[in-house]
Specification:
With about 190 residues, the protein is of the alpha/beta class. The protein has seven helices and five strands. Strands 1-2-5-3-4 form a five-stranded mixed beta sheet, sandwiched between helices. Helix 3 links the parallel strand 3 (about 75-80) and strand 4 (about 100-105). Helix 5 packs parallel to helix 7 (about 170-180). The termini are far apart. Mean pLDDT is about 85; it is low at about 1-25.
């Protein structure tokens, strides 16, 4: 295992231990007690991790042990934006075994549809799912979804796209997102 991965795994252990102590001491763990961690608290198993908001973490593909790590970090649910052929059934099974909620919105097109954005909003706005980890293969779909979601909540479109970029939105999907938001084409 590379040194950076080893260090990242060790760095995540104090948080997981703190969560275990809190659960043991109180018998419960609520969303008020746990927020999505900052990036320095996660290992390489949560590739391209970012903290979208206090209750929403975002990532690319979850590597080996990623579902268990998400649970240990206090995430209540995982929202997977990958298509079935990308391994969603295996991740759903791993989430079930780990005792963490699992949702899937397969985003196969360049830009999530209105129905997909509405489903995303329903899941991430449900307090029972918080904190939640949203991911796809690289975080590009997460960034696209986030930009459209935030714009739908009244955030100015340019700012919503910038937020999406922070979470992983790349030009390959940004072109379609900008078109959906009525923004000028992406310039190189």
């Amino acid at each position: 295992m590379p040194v950076a991965q080893t260090y990242a795994r060790r760095a995540a252990r104090p948080l997981a231990l703190s969560l275990a102590i809190l659960i043991t001491a109180t018998g419960t763990l609520s969303a008020a007690d746990v927020q999505a961690p900052f990036g320095d608290k996660v290992s390489a198993a949560l590739m391209n991790y970012n903290r979208a908001s206090p209750m929403i973490g975002s990532a690319g593909v979850l590597g080996e042990g990623g579902v268990a790590e998400a649970k240990a970090l206090g995430f209540t649910a995982i929202l997977d934006l990958r298509s079935p052929e990308e391994g969603t059934a295996e991740e759903a099974a791993a989430a079930g075994s780990a005792g963490i909620g699992y949702y899937n919105i397969p985003v196969a097109t360049k830009s999530p549809t209105d129905d997909q954005v509405a489903a995303f909003a329903s899941i991430v706005e449900d307090a029972r799912n918080l904190p939640i980890l949203v991911h796809c293969e690289s975080a590009n779909r997460v960034g696209a979804m986030w930009a459209l979601y935030r714009a739908g909540k009244g955030v100015p479109a340019e700012i919503a796209v910038e937020e999406g970029r922070t979470l992983g939105l790349k030009p390959s999907r940004e072109v379609a997102v900008r078109e959906r938001l009525g923004l000028p084409p992406l310039t190189q």
